[in-house]
Every structure is written in C-alpha cells, then in structure tokens.
Design a protein that fits this description.
The complex is a heterodimer of chains A (about 180) and B (about 200). With about 180 residues, chain A is α+β, with helices and mostly antiparallel strands. Chain A is about 45% helix and about 30% strand. Classes of the chains: A alpha+beta (about 180), B alpha+beta (about 200).
C-alpha cells in the first residue's frame, strides 16, 4: 500500500516490538515489527464490532522506571558519601544524569497516563496509544467511529438493495394483465 | 464472577482493553462499559455490522445450457475461472484480489510462496536489518570485519530502499545506514591492506 493511500495515525514502541497504525480508505492497517519481520493486518471498517477509549497508567512501567532511577540516585549518594575530598556535586552529577530520564519517564507516565484507542474487528484489532496528545486521541476515536458508521451504513444499504432485488415479484391479478397474456 | 470469560489469545473477538478478557455480546454496548472480569471501566462505541450476503446461483436455477458447475460445489454455477489453474469456481470459492480471481487452493499456494503482493501479510524488514548490520559493523570494523559487515549493510540497505519506496516509507535512515556500510567496508579494506603491507614488510 502506497503512502499516498494511507495516513499514519500513530505508532507504539515497546521494548521489543513496534506497531504503526495507518488509515486506509476502507479500514485500518497495522504493521507490527517483531525483530526483523513486519506483520501486516487490517481491520476493515465494515467488520468493526467495538471501538474503545480508556486511559491507563501502566503500573509496571512506572515501578520499573522509578526503581532504576532510584537505584542510580542511590549509587550516586553512596559514591558521594565515600568521597571525602573535593566537590561532592561533581561526583554525583553523572548518576543524577543517568537517573533523571527514568525518573522523568516514571513521573510523566504516573501523571499523564496513556490514552488508548482500540478498534476491535471480527478477525483482528488495532491499538493506538497516545501519551502526550490527548486531544488527538479523542479526535482519532471520534474519527474512527464516524468512518465505521459511514462504512456500515453503506453496507446496510447495499445488503438491503441486494435483498430487494432478490424478492420475486408477485404475479399481477388477472384484471391487470395485458390482453395478450390473458389469451395465452 | 464471569466464569465464562477467558483470555483471548489468539484474537477471538472484542476484549476488555484493560485486562484482555473476551467480552460477551451482552456486555458490548455504547457508553461506559464495566468489565465483568476486572471491574474496571472504559468508554466504548458498539457496532452491529450487517453480514454481507453472498449470492450463489445454482445450476438448476440458471439452466443447464451456458452454465458450468463449480469444481468444488457441483450444485453451484461457476461465475469465473481461477487465474492460475483455470478451474471453474462459484462465488463461494472465488478469491478476488483485484488483480484476478483464484480458487482457494491456488490462493493458499500463491500466498505461501509470496508471489502475490496483495496477499502478503508477513515480510522481512530489510531497513531494520541494514541499520543493525551498520551498528554491528561499527564494532567489528576494529576486528578487520568491516568489509563483510559493510557489504552486508549495503546489500540490506539496497533491498530496504526498494521496500521502503514501494511502501512509501521514509528512506533517510536506510540511506544513512548505507553510508555507514560503505565507510565500514572501506575501513575494513584499509585494515586488510595495512595488515598485508605489514606482513610483507612494506610498512615502516
């Protein structure tokens, strides 16, 4: 699928996997990268059963990052205590620098959480995660719901039309039949 | 507490986005849903998609003249032939991919051998492989392995570029990896030349 035909809605990067979700004219396409393989799946708007929106914190993410951050800080404190001479701050600085990203990540996750939009189809699902762009998450949720509604209404019409075409026509009453058919 | 709920793996249908347990049809509705298993809530919009009805014409309906029977369903009228094996197939068997119609067995085969790009759902990401080879090459260049790693990076980068262009993805990362690959190959070559010169006593 060419880039012109699909729009990237979001990308989720985890420890060993990365998943990008694109919007296609007829559905959502997910590309999950596992090691060196990319697995492509589609959730067609016509097949969507449920679209959900929720906010989660990810307790293990917060705990793990906080633990690593605190561990580095603890090492810094130990080293500073061991150094009796010179400026203690310069000894502690590298450890603070190492601890900061983990502590910031843990704090941001604990405060902001992650907004998750999940689209469940009949055979597959697509998950979109937004850490900072909360408004975008809400917009995407509304957009997917609107697209699904539109696709399923069109399908309903199509099914109704094909069902109507299949209904056999009732025979006309004898008084309405043309004379040529009456004589036959 | 919801003993019928079970972990959906592989995907079996809508689940609770928080705990991953299957949601029963009755608990799927628009509004706030409380998961019967984990008791946590989430916002949801439920849909009831209509089933697309397949219209199958039987041979008896269409009449014996001009109607070929499907090779798999003798009662059904064939609507087309398989592009690969020429088998008569009905609308139930037809696997139409836009580029042509296939019978189910041919579809499975072309999908398995990867010759049908529209049906490919799993492929190698050569861009990532090029980046990894480039990074590995940076370390191994000091061990005179820059040449094979550089060549490998360039090979993967070439394939990755073609893949990224076909998919319309950005190619900057792959190009950078290719430049690193070329530099590693040159460095590796230079290291080998230096070793040869050293061994032959021309390096003083």
């Amino acid at each position: 699928m060419k880039a012109a035909n699909r729009i990237r809605l979001g990308t989720t990067t985890q420890a060993f996997a990365r998943e990008a979700v694109y919007e296609l004219p007829d559905g959502l396409e997910t590309e999950s990268s596992e090691h060196y393989e990319v697995i492509r799946k589609r959730v067609l708007f016509e097949d969507v059963l449920l679209v959900t929106y929720h906010r989660e914190t990810g307790v293990w993410f917060v705990i793990l990052n906080a633990f690593i951050g605190v561990f580095f800080l603890f090492l810094g404190v130990l080293i500073v205590n061991a150094q009796r001479t010179g400026n203690a701050f310069w000894y502690a600085l590298p450890w603070i620098v190492m601890a900061l990203p983990f502590l910031i990540a843990a704090s941001l996750r604990a405060i902001l959480g992650v907004d998750v939009v999940t689209t469940f189809g009949r055979r597959s699902k697509a998950i979109l995660r937004f850490t900072f762009r909360k408004r975008r998450a809400r917009e995407i949720y509304g957009h997917i719901c609107a697209k699904v509604r539109q696709a399923q209404r069109a399908l309903e019409r199509e099914v109704a039309e094909s069902a109507a075409a299949e209904v056999p026509q009732a025979p006309l009453p004898p008084e309405m039949l043309p004379p040529s058919e009456l004589s036959g | 507490m919801a003993t019928a709920a079970k972990k959906a793996s592989p995907y079996e249908g809508p689940q609770c986005p928080r705990c991953g347990n299957l949601l029963a049809d009755v608990s799927r509705h628009t509004g706030t849903i409380v998961c019967p298993t984990c008791s946590r809530n989430f916002e949801a919009t439920a849909f009831n998609p209509p089933q697309r009805k397949m219209r199958v014409v039987e041979v008896a309906q269409s009449g014996p003249e001009g109607a070929n029977a499907c090779a798999n369903h003798a009662r059904n009228t064939a609507v087309t032939t398989c592009q690969r094996c020429g088998l008569f197939i009905c609308s139930l068997c037809e696997m139409n991919l836009g580029s042509g119609s296939y019978c189910p067995s041919c579809f499975d085969r072309v999908r398995a051998d990867g010759s049908l790009s529209a049906a490919t759902t799993r492929y190698r990401d050569y861009g990532s492989m090029a980046r990894v080879a480039a990074v590995a090459g940076l370390f191994f260049t000091f061990m005179f392995l820059g040449l094979p790693f550089g060549a490998l990076t360039i090979y993967y980068a070439r394939k990755g570029l073609a893949q990224a262009k076909a998919d319309g993805r950005p190619t900057v990362g792959i190009r950078i990896a290719a430049v690193f690959g070329a530099l590693e190959a040159l460095a590796g070559l230079g290291a080998i030349v230096l070793v040869i010169l050293g061994l032959t006593g021309r390096l003083k």
